[in-house]
């Protein structure tokens, strides 16, 4: 079993990797990949939790709001 600090470090590494993937997706204008990376980060950070559906029970998903801001090249040029 991993210690708490090892789990925190592993979570941070995954979040960093997903952020790098999100930035690449932004550069390549792949909105689906950006959303996927953001959702992955939210799950790791505990902002979204999914519970497995047991037989005879409804599926319960806890969703908390996450603010995501997309900036396009056009928006950057108008600010300059």
Structure commentary:
The protein has 80 residues and is mostly helical. The chain has one domain (4-79). It is 56% helix and 8% strand. The protein contains three helices and two strands. It has helices spanning 4-27, 31-44, 73-79; strands at 48-50, 61-63. Strands 1-2 form a two-stranded antiparallel ribbon. α1 packs antiparallel against α2. The model has no long low-confidence stretch (mean pLDDT 79).
> What proportion of the residues form beta strands (DSSP E)?
5-15%
How many H/I helical runs? Answer: 3
What is the C-alpha radius of gyration, as a whole number of Å?
17 Å
The biggest sheet, with number of strands, parallel, antiparallel or mixed sense and barrel status, is: 2 strands, antiparallel
Task: Give the distance, in angstroms, between the N- and C-terminal Cα atoms.
Answer: 51 Å
Across the major sheet, the strand order is 1-2
By secondary-structure content and strand pairing, the structural class works out as: mainly alpha
Domain count, please report it. 1
Please estimate the helix content: 55-70%
* Series of H and E elements: HHEEH
Number of strands: 2
């Amino acid at each position: 079993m991993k210690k708490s600090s090892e789990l925190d470090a592993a979570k941070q590494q995954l979040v960093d990797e997903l952020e790098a993937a999100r930035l690449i997706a932004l550069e390549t204008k792949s909105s689906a990949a950006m959303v996927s990376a953001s959702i992955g980060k939210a799950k790791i950070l505990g902002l979204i939790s999914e519970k497995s559906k047991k037989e005879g029970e409804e599926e319960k998903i806890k969703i908390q709001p996450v603010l995501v801001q997309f900036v396009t090249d056009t928006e950057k040029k108008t600010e300059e």
